[in-house]
Amino acid sequence: MASAKEPNLIDPIHQFAISKLADIKIGNIDISFTNSSQFMVITTIAIMFLFMLGLSKRSIIPNRFQMICELSYNFIANLLRANVGEQGRDYFPFVFTLFMFIFFCNLIGLIPYTFTVTSHIIVTFAFAGLIFIGVTLIGFVKNGLGYLRMFYPKGVPVYMAPIIIPIEIISYLTKPVSLSVRLMANMLAGHSIIKIFAGFIVMMGFFGIIPLAGLVAIYALEVFIAFLQAYIFTILTCIYLNDALHPHH
Amino acid sequence: MQDDEHKLSQLNQKIEAAKSKNQLDNHSNIPPSQLGKVMKLTVEIVAAVGIGVGIGILLDNFFNTRPLFIIIFFLLGGCAGILNVFRVAKSMQNH
User: Do A171 and B26 touch (CB under 8 A)?
Assistant: First the structure.
């Protein structure tokens, strides 16, 4: 009823619209500065600000900001050690940057009137695709052509090879797709649900207090999911890295 | 000065004690939710079929043999999806 009067009251997808803030073109390629780029810049500045604030003093007994920095460092360092081993140390800067960026993108997207960078498949797929190409290159550099052996598992009879090898290759190519779709779908679904519930509050008037209570719970869940998805993305990166470094396990 | 060092060594002891306590809890990582598990498996199978069909379409456009390779790679993609689901489920069981 209320939605008939105001057809645009609930428009859960509108928040994901990309708008150009500044038109930039090089040749025929459109590289305009959009609201998505704007929030990537904000995310980067927020992370840099946090770490500059936290690591400027370097006291033995840390204050709160230094604690945040050290905890996140330890968290990722332990994750790498557990999943990749000591060799994973070389890739720490990349994995740490990846985790912080995705986590902050997810968190900043939860603030009202902001834009969620990670809710677009092209952003997450760019991450996952780059990781996939990088990990494949690392695999070939570290193992040479022996890396190809993982497409043909041990103990498989030769006459099965024409079927097994394409299946293994498809299964390998699936990695970046499932990685990026998972992050994007979680962000998209979560933010849409929040928007829909928020619409219910307005529609139901006084009884809107019921969806409001639900919304508070969902919001808390979303904060957890923001962390969880960044964590899953990072841990899967570590696992792929481990597969590239030690393919025989 | 002497006092400070004493304090520091005490602090170190406290940190060590806290660390050894933490080590016990640390192994139980974040438990994945049921919905997360379902989501993971679904995405896995859909992505594999999608990739398979994509490869099929590319090959068909290249050799002009539509729909031969689409059918072959659709089936292979399905197999790869089930293989992926099998592997993910196996790793879930181990945890």
Answer: no
Per-residue model confidence as pLDDT tens digits over A68-93:
999 999 999 999 998 888 888 899 99
The structure tokens 């695999």 sit at: A139
Q: Which residues of A191-224 are buried (b: 16+ CB within 10 A; e: fewer)?
A: bebbbebbbbbeeeeeebeebeeebeebbeebee
**Partners of residue A153 in chain B, C-beta under 8 Å:** none
Does B79 sit within 8 Å of A177, measured CB to CB? Answer: no
A182 and B52 within 8 Å at the Cβ level: the answer is: no
Taking an 8 Å cut-off on Cβ atoms, the answer to whether A182 and B39 are in contact is yes
Cα–Cα distances (Å) from B60 to A172, A184, A247, in that order, read 21, 30, 32
Q: How far is residue B15 from each of residues B19, B22, B23, B88, measured CA to CA in Å?
A: 6, 10, 12, 37
The predicted complex's ipTM stands at: 0.72
A59 touches B: beta carbon within 8 Å: no
Q: Provide the whole-model pTM.
A: 0.82
Q: What residue type is assigned to position B90 of the chain? A: K
Query: Is-contact A106 A233, C-beta < 8 A?
Result: no
Q: Is A34 in a helix, a strand, or coil? A: strand
Pairing of strands A29-30, A20-22: unpaired
The beta-carbon neighbor of B79 closest among A167, A173, A181 is A167
B36 touches chain A (CB under 8 A): yes
Can you give the residue range of the structural domain that contains A68?
A: 2-245
**pLDDT (0 to 100) of residue B58:** 93
